């Protein structure tokens, strides 16, 4: 990715107040150059946004050849600045061979107010090695001087330890704590009233109660009905009530008892079938499971459920009509409309037409107890029952006799018709409301499921990104509930026996070029990306799972072994991870990884017709690990071991692995490597050191 050129970014100013706040007399050198860059991500693990180009290398050289307390800028940057700075010649080409080769003219920008630097000034030496595109930097510091000032700076530093990552996690936890109040507000805003149903339908047709999105209709109807067996149980009690009412009239009407017995028997069978999932737990294991799975389909298949419902409702309706038919077919019933005398041998139930009305009302109720059946089907069945009952009351004179006038002088047939009509209307309103709430609940569940899926996906993406920035145990620390109420200050860990590796491709600079042929360097960068990806893939193999990739700096690959959580950590909760592994194993695993990436690079060379070579340096010893940075927090390691490992690489031999004397002793004891003493070489910051070379072509593989 190529950023959009800006002519104002060179005027960025930062007021450094660190010395005033911490009372530490530190200083720094800065190098600035303006030009073109390529930006993006490389590799599969430990993603970090970075920039590459020759101009980046020039900026690095500007910093290396700079002066503490000044900003070392190139002529390209100076020409873009306003005349509001104190500028003096920098002569960077005299101090740096690379700048001299490019004949670069440089300048120093000094502060307006010179600050005195005492003899106790704490300089932070920053070594930048030659890298094809981007410099590598390692740092060290004078611990004793920092220790003397620690008591006076703790309070100030604690305010700086709040990183952007910490604040983001704190905001996330605050959002989690406010979930309940958000849910209450959402519940209050639910469209449950009739007004909301008609004015704010929310995806449901207000009259037909069908989904506005037709594709949702079939999945909604195919839902399982866990309440179906309870609806059957309610129908059983309705049937029992009808039978009890008939028994209290002391009548034995043959057709009614046959019909009611049929309903009763069918409901008993249906209840037994629908409750098989619960009964199965108490049945011996010898019972075939397939039998029970077949019986449970009554509550899981919509067609079977609907068939059972229609059959039970039809039998209920037939029972109510048959009871009325028994009275109408009685031989002794008088059919003269003017005769007000009722025959003595008429059944008692026939002398009380309200009995049949109550039976019809109970039948309507038995239809409405099936909550998940479509309300149009229930309306059709109850409407059919009302129509049939009305035909009987008007066709025959049983309900038209003056003796059977109601208390309000309205004919009994008309009064009972209106009573059933009101019952039908009331049950229909309830059915509509149940249907509406059920469909609304279905929409909310779908919406919640989609949001949960999006949140789960986003959480997985965030976790993946965080674990590609930080090690797994550090990312877990920031994400777990254990740190919900902890201060998110400086996170650090101390290790005593960590093996550190720097692997660089010294001839990549010769390969890299910015021309139209390679798309201004993009194709060269693509090759580097493939190399780093091949290295990263090896970290997923079982022998290298405990290795930790630290970062890539240009064409240099940095990794370490032995960074297991809990080693004198800033969080005691990780102490349960057990004792620290022996440094011997760390060295052996990291050396094997170094050999493996050499093989991987040779394989890539054979496929791409390239001649890349690795130069590797390994050292072992104590390190300090932690998370630093505000806007872009990064896990890194520091210490003398890191500096020495970097020097082992920069002063090493192409195609070989240069190691310290301590590492060489461990590899010699393993008797698997061809190790030769290189002799004493000068290591910046350490003086003369005896180093050893491991020949990768003479290795007995682990």
UniProtKB/TrEMBL annotation:
GO terms for cellular component: plasma membrane. The chain crosses the membrane at residues 227-248, 254-275, 302-324, 354-373. It catalyses: ATP = 3',5'-cyclic AMP + diphosphate. Residues 26-63, 499-649 form the Guanylate cyclase domain. Its cofactor is Mg(2+). Keywords: ATP-binding, cAMP biosynthesis, Lyase, Magnesium, Membrane, Metal-binding, Nucleotide-binding, Transmembrane, Transmembrane helix. It is found in: Membrane. It is a multi-pass membrane protein. GO terms for molecular function: adenylate cyclase activity; ATP binding; metal ion binding. InterPro entries: A/G_cyclase, A/G_cyclase_CS, Nucleotide_cyclase. Signal peptide: none annotated. Its EC number is 4.6.1.1. Its main location: membrane. GO terms for biological process: adenylate cyclase-activating G protein-coupled receptor signaling pathway; adenylate cyclase-inhibiting G protein-coupled receptor signaling pathway; cAMP biosynthetic process; intracellular signal transduction. Belongs to the adenylyl cyclase class-4/guanylyl cyclase family. This is adenylate cyclase. It comes from Oedothorax gibbosus.
């Amino acid at each position: 990715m190529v950023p959009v050129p800006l002519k104002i970014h060179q005027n960025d100013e930062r007021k450094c107040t660190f010395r005033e706040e911490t009372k530490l007399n530190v200083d720094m050198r800065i190098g600035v150059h303006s030009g073109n860059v390529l930006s993006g991500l490389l590799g599969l693990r430990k993603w970090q946004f970075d920039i590459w180009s020759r101009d980046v290398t020039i900026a690095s050289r500007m910093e290396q050849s700079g002066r503490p307390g000044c900003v070392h800028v190139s002529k390209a940057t100076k020409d873009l600045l306003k005349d509001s700075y104190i500028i003096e010649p920098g002569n960077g080409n005299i101090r740096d061979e690379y700048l001299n080769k490019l004949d670069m003219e440089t300048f120093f920008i000094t502060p307006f107010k010179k600050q005195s630097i005492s003899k106790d000034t704490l300089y932070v030496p920053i070594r930048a090695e030659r890298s094809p595109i981007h410099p590598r930097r390692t740092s060290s510091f004078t611990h004793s001087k920092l220790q003397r000032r620690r008591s006076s700076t703790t309070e100030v530093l604690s305010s700086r330890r709040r990183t952007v990552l910490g604040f983001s996690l704190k905001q996330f936890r605050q959002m989690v704590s406010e979930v309940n109040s958000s849910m209450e507000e959402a519940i209050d805003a639910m469209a449950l009233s009739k007004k909301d149903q008609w004015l704010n339908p929310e995806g449901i047709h207000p009259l037909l109660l069908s989904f506005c999105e037709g594709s949702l209709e079939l999945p909604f109807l195919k839902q399982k009905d866990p309440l179906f067996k309870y609806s059957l149980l309610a129908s059983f009690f309705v049937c029992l009530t009808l039978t009890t009412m008939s028994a209290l009239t002391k009548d034995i009407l043959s057709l009614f008892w046959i019909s009611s017995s049929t309903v009763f028997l069918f409901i008993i069978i249906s209840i037994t079938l629908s409750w098989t999932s619960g009964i199965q737990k108490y049945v011996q294991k010898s019972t075939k499971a397939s039998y029970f799975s077949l019986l449970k389909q009554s509550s899981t298949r919509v067609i079977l459920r609907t068939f059972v419902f229609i059959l039970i409702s039809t039998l209920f309706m037939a029972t109510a009509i048959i009871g009325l038919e028994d009275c109408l077919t009685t031989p002794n019933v008088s059919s003269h409309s003017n005769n007000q005398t009722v025959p003595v041998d008429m059944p008692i139930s026939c002398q009380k037409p309200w009995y049949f009305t109550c039976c019809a009302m109970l039948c309507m109720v038995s239809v409405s107890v099936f909550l998940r059946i479509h309300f149009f089907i229930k309306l059709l069945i109850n409407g059919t029952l009302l129509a049939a009952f009305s035909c009987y009351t008007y066709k025959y004179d049983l309900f038209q006799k003056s003796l059977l006038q109601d208390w309000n002088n309205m004919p009994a047939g008309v009064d009972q018709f209106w009573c059933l009509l009101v019952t039908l209307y009331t049950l229909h309103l309830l059915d509509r409301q149940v249907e509406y709430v059920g469909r609304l609940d279905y929409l909310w569940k779908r919406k919640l499921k989609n949001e949960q899926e999006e949140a789960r996906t986003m959480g997985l993406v965030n976790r993946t990104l965080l674990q590609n920035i930080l090690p797994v145990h550090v990312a877990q620390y920031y994400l777990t509930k254990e740190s919900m109420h902890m201060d998110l200050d400086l996170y650090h860990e101390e290790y005593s026996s960590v093996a550190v590796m720097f692997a660089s491709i010294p001839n990549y600079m010769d390969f890299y070029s910015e021309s139209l042929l390679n798309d201004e360097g993009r194709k060269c960068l693509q090759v580097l990306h493939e190399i780093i990806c091949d290295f990263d893939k090896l970290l997923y193999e079982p022998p290298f799972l405990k290795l930790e990739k630290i970062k890539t700096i240009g064409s240099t690959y940095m990794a370490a072994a032995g960074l297991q959580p809990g080693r004198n950590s800033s969080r005691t909760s990780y102490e349960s991870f057990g004792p620290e592994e022996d440094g011997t194993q760390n060295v052996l695993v990291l050396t094997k990884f170094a050999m493996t990436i050499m093989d991987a690079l040779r394989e890539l060379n054979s496929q791409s017709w390239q001649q890349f070579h690795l130069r590797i340096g390994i050292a072992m010893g104590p390190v300090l690990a932690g998370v630093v940075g505000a806007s872009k927090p990064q896990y890194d390691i520091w210490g003398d071991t890191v500096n020495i490992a970097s020097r082992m690489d920069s002063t090493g031999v192409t195609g070989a692995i240069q190691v310290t004397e301590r590492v060489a002793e461990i590899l010699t004891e393993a008797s698997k490597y061809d190790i030769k003493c290189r002799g004493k070489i000068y290591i910046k910051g350490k003086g003369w050191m005896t180093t050893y070379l491991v020949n990768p072509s003479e290795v007995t593989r682990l």
